Amino acid sequence: MAELFTEENDQRGDLRMKKQVLVYVHNLHKTYFSQKNGVSCHALSGMEFRIYEGDFIAVMGASGSGKSTLLNMLSGCDYPDKGEIFIGDRAMSKLKKKELAVYRRDEIGIIFQQFHLSDYLTALENIMVPAVLAEKEEKAAGERARMLADRLHIKNLLEKYPYELSGGEKQRCAIARALMNSPKLLLADEPTGQLDRRSSENFLQILESLNREGQTIFMTTHDPYIGSRAGRVIFIQDGKIYHELRRETEDREEFYGNIMETLSETLFAEQKTDGEI
Ligand SMILES: Nc1ncnc2c1ncn2[C@@H]1O[C@H](COP(=O)(O)OP(=O)(O)O)[C@@H](O)[C@H]1O
Ligand SMILES: [Mg+2]
């Protein structure tokens, strides 16, 4: 990991600010082969970036650009063909099966577009699943679950089952579950995809407030409005990063404008290239 801490790699002053590299994604490649027709698809083609402690990153790209593939790699659900993900100073590919399971259980929390709550468990039981898997003491885990539920305004819904909850309530339940074991990194794959505007707004405000308290967040989205809530936006296309923006303004509308500008430049560049062909 020594090469991570050189001035050469310190392009944007993160190291000068003594921010810790939480995750280093190095030259990640992933190709999928279709069993049916043998056609290959380069889902990730040499992805390279760092996640610093306290970051709120939005990975933006169109459908099929590789967002979920990347997130699945970070969560240890899928593995690259080439390249490496370093978690602190540990290479993910070198982790033993049990170590990877512990990483997934204790160091990350994941939120999905489809919530992925169990309909057989109450909201409280769903929230407590990670603590149960980690064999945490039941009373303390219950207290933490209730504290999180209180904070996310779902305390009065804890005895309900997911099918009795609205989309926004389900997603808040999923956030509480993701935070149960105090993960270093919160991952979210198109988390507002199933939510209406109001629930999305509420969800984003929760993420912003968690991030202000120091929670590192890595989220994927195709929506520039959602992206504008992050501190860093990484733009991807065909499994490659082609641009990155940092929010250097408090003004969210201004940052949204910057994102739109990048997206429209990309669109025009594509049209120009298409025209040349
Ligand atoms: N399990 C898989 N098998 C074959 N192709 C896949 C698989 N998962 C993803 N892909 C392909 O990889 C590309 C990236 O997919 P994905 O990461 O899901 O994109 P996104 O989340 O940005 O919509 C797409 O072209 C998709 O069809
Ligand atoms: Mg996806």
Describe it for me?
It is a single chain. With 277 residues, the chain is of the alpha/beta class. It has a domain at 20-33 and 40-113 and 186-270: P-loop containing nucleotide triphosphate hydrolases (Rossmann fold), CATH 3.40.50. It is 37% helix and 25% strand. It has a 6-stranded mixed β-sheet, sandwiched between helices. A 4-stranded antiparallel β-sheet has the order 2-1-4-5, with helices on one face. Helix 3 packs across helix 4 (138-151), helix 3 packs parallel to helix 5 (167-179) and helix 5 packs parallel to helix 6. It is globular and about 60 Å long. The N and C termini lie far apart (43 Å). The model is unreliable at 1-10 (pLDDT under 50). The structure holds adenosine-5'-diphosphate and magnesium ion (MG). Adenosine-5'-diphosphate is lined by residues 32, 41, 43, 61, 63-69. Adenosine-5'-diphosphate binds next to strand 2 and helix 1.
